[in-house]
Design goal:
Belongs to the ABC transporter superfamily. The chain has ten helices and ten strands. With 252 residues, it is α/β, with parallel strands linked by helices. The structure holds adenosine-5'-triphosphate.
Length: 252
């Protein structure tokens, strides 16, 4: 069998006496969208924090293309081709949309954090072009010169995706991209995820089951920190344990 793009092996995280993530073993195949779903407090965000290097594992290991990444710093994991878009706003509000994306692109090329780059700011036309390409793909080119902090919520969330895309990832980890969005923004975001999935492997946490069922090739269901099941949406949604754990006995 081909090496999965990302492989989680018995990944465990304890916070004191709480086992937030409990021996999760999961392969993420290339070119697919895997949605991680589960009830509130199941451990999904903690799992993302482990994958992206924000938290240290208590036990287990994580490999990207067969190489261990679980000992690396978050910025080094980004350099390896794994980028994350956040659930909370994560940009410089006083900089323009373009500058935010450009800094991320420059950080990827230099290995410095965007914060460090701000200290010795230097406009490079190459990263400016890359940033414009990203904004174009996100349909944000017309607000390129606007301050990030003044954008509408949906545009800010898309900008965060742009910041992750500027890192040129093979694997994009998305934490609730439609959270707090209007119905129209949610549809736009779903279409954006579908577009990105054409050339990027995606792992997504998403509570909107309509979005999940449309974009995901596979569902991984987490309950109480453990992986309950993983498989195609059509199979997982019929699983009685999933319906009881997550859907309260009703099919979504
Ligand atoms: N930094 C932390 N310190 C202590 N406990 C934590 C920490 N982060 C998460 N937890 C606990 O770990 C468990 C899993 O939380 P987590 O946020 O990963 O769940 P989740 O599935 O992402 O939930 P939600 O869908 O509500 O975002 C919860 O019991 C939570 O209280």
């Amino acid at each position: 069998m081909a090496t999965p793009l990302l492989a989680l092996d018995s990944v465990t995280k304890e916070f004191g006496s709480i086992r937030a993530v409990d021996e999760v073993t999961l392969d993420i195949p290339e070119s697919e969208v895997t949605a991680v779903i589960g009830p509130n407090g199941a451990g999904k965000t903690t799992l993302f924090n482990l994958i992206t290097g924000r938290y240290e594992l208590t036990d287990g290991q994580i490999e990207l293309r067969g190489e261990r990444i679980d000992q690396l710093e978050p910025q080094d994991i980004v350099q390896q081709g794994l980028a994350r878009s956040f659930q909370i706003t994560n940009f410089f509000p006083d900089l323009t949309a373009l500058e935010n994306v450009r800094l991320a692109a420059q950080a990827q090329r230099t290995g410095l954090t965007p914060g460090a780059l701000l200290q010795h700011y230097d406009d490079q036309s190459e990263t400016r072009e890359a940033a414009r390409d990203v904004l174009k793909r996100l349909d944000l080119l017309d607000i390129a010169e606007e301050q990030a902090g003044s954008l509408a919520h949906g545009q800010q969330r898309h900008l965060e995706i742009g910041i992750a895309l500027a890192c040129d990832p093979d694997l994009l980890v998305m934490d609730e991209p439609t959270a707090g969005m209007s119905p129209d923004e949610t549809v736009e975001t779903r279409e954006l995820v579908e577009d990105l999935a054409e050339d990027i492997t995606i792992v997504i946490i998403e509570h909107d089951m309509d979005v999940v069922m449309r974009v995901a090739d596979r569902l991984a269901v987490i309950e109480n920190g453990s992986l309950l099941t993983v498989g195609p949406p059509s199979v997982v949604r019929e699983d009685e344990r999933v319906q009881q754990a997550y859907l309260g006995g009703e099919t979504a």
